[in-house]
Amino acid sequence: MTHDLEVAASRSYPVGVARAFDAVLPLPLPFLFSRRYAALPPIREVRDQDGEWGALGQTRTIVLADGGTMRETLTGLDRPASFGYRIDQVSGPMRPLASSIDGLWTFEKAGTGVRVTWSWTVHPSSSATALLMPAFARMWRGYARQALELLEQALVD
Predict the structure, then answer these.
(1) Which Pfam families does UniProt cross-reference here (predicted)?
(2) The pairing of beta strand 69-78 with beta strand 5-13
C-alpha cells in the first residue's frame, strides 16, 4: 500500500493578495524553478502551452534540465485565493518516483501583505518508491524555499 506524501512551503510578501495571485499564476516556470536543489532539476522550458497560463483545463508540457518531462493540467482556479494543478505523464528520472502530483498555490491576507503557500501531494509510483518519500520531502522543501525566494523578485519591485 502506498501513502501519499504531502509537503508545503509558505512565505509572506508585502503585496496584496490579488496582485500576488495575478503575478504567480502566469509566471514563467523556467524563471521560478531555475535552480537545481539536490536531485530536483530546474525547469528548462515549457511546451505546448496555448496562450497565457490561466484557463481551467489548460495543459502544458514541462521539460526538466535532466531531460524528464511532465504534463501539467490546471485543475482549479479561485481568483484570488488559489489555483491548483495536476502533474502526470511523468517521464525521465522522476517517473519511478511519482505516478502523479497534485499541486496547489494559495494566497491569503497576512497583515498588510500576502502569505503564499505552495503545496504538493505526491502519489508514489509503487510501495517501493514510497519508501523514498521522506528523502524526497527534504529535497522538495529546499526546492520550494529557492522558488519562494525567487518569487520575491517577481512580486516586490
Answers:
(1) Polyketide_cyc2
(2) unpaired
Cβ–Cβ < 8 Å for 141, 11: no
Amino acid code (one letter) for 41: P
Closest CA to 12 of 114, 154, 155, 141: 114
DSSP 94: G
Domains and CATH numbers, the chain: 5-155 (3.30.530.20)
Measured between alpha carbons, how far is 41 from 66 in angstroms, rounded to an integer? 6
Candidates 132, 85, 135; CA nearest to 105 is: 85
